[in-house]
């Protein structure tokens, strides 16, 4: 397949581009800068100049390919307003991409977060998160899945709180960045809340499988580690950076404070059984050992 990829130079996107190319697909990837275009060309992909806000470019790109994988998101979590702007930008992009694919039976793979399920581990059968600071992302993804009734093989791969590679990425990466900036490796509350995780290279395999064979209107969980306690994650960060470890106020994490404090373990049992996906790369706690002081 010739596949349009948004976010193709990010931590996850670069792994997805390599995974697609390594399995016989060709890639047309959105490039919002000259540096991104050069990186994509070096990886073997064809760059498509433009950003997520360039809706005409997205529409044109979707018309030139056999399928779409959407990964791009402006990760500015500094204020509630910046989060809302990023969510709105993505929602508009998803709507345009979906419209371009209606009636084509082509695959459209997008991503969302694993949901929370009070008192238990969440599964693929649980509904998406549609409330809270990033609830708009869940509503936009639900609309994409609804395109299954309009001739789009739309699917959603739910990513856990941390998608990592060599100690970088995801919510654990945010904890690391804050620790470097403040001199304290902190966790919200008592740190017993659990976060699921997956290595970026394993997530890339699942995204390819969803593109190739997932049924329309389905959701999948890219979860390798069902749930590490946040204080265990931070303990590794603190040790690797040589910083003290302690509880800090949820406000430390700005508009994401409530999410950072939530217990949110998640299962991928159905995904593994149905798609034959088997994660094989290092766990989050092992991967964090790559952090350099």
UniProtKB/TrEMBL annotation:
Pfam family, any one: Epimerase
Name recorded for this polypeptide: Nucleoside-diphosphate-sugar epimerase
UniProt-listed CDD domains: SDR_a7
Domain of life: Bacteria
Domain NAD-dependent epimerase/dehydratase: 3-217
Gene Ontology molecular functions: aldehyde dehydrogenase (NAD+) activity
Species annotation: Frankia canadensis
InterPro entries noted in UniProt: Epimerase_deHydtase, NAD(P)-bd_dom_sf, NAD(P)-dependent_oxidoreduct
Cellular component GO terms held in the UniProt record: cytoplasm
UniProt cross-references to Gene3D superfamilies, sorted A to Z: NAD(P)-binding Rossmann-like Domain
């Amino acid at each position: 397949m010739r596949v349009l990829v948004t976010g193709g130079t990010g931590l996850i996107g670069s792994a997805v581009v390599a995974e697609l190319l390594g399995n016989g697909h060709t890639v047309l990837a959105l490039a919002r800068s000259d540096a991104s275009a050069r990186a994509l060309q070096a990886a073997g992909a064809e760059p498509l100049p433009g950003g997520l806000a360039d809706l005409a470019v997205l529409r044109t790109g979707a018309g030139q390919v056999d399928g779409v994988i959407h990964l791009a998101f402006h990760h500015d979590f500094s204020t509630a307003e910046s989060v809302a702007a990023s969510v709105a930008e993505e929602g508009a992009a998803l709507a345009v991409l979906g419209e371009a694919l209606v009636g084509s039976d082509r695959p459209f793979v997008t991503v969302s977060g694993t949901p929370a399920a009070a008192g238990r581990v969440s599964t693929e059968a649980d509904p998406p998160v549609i409330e809270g600071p990033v609830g708009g992302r869940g509503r936009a993804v639900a609309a994409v899945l609804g395109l299954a009734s309009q001739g789009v093989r739309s699917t959603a791969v739910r990513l856990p709180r941390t998608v990592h590679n060599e100690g970088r990425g995801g919510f654990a990466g945010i904890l690391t960045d804050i620790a470097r900036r403040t001199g304290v490796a902190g966790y919200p509350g008592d740190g017993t809340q659990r976060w699921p995780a997956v290595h970026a290279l394993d997530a890339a395999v699942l995204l390819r499988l969803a593109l190739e064979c997932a049924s329309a209107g389905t959701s999948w969980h890219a979860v390798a580690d069902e749930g590490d306690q946040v204080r265990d994650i931070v303990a590794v960060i603190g040790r690797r950076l040589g910083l003290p470890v302690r509880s800090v106020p949820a406000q430390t994490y700005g508009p994401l404070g409530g999410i950072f404090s939530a217990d949110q373990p998640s299962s991928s049992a159905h995904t593994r059984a149905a798609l034959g996906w088997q994660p094989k790369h290092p766990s989050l706690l092992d991967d964090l050992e790559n952090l350099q002081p």
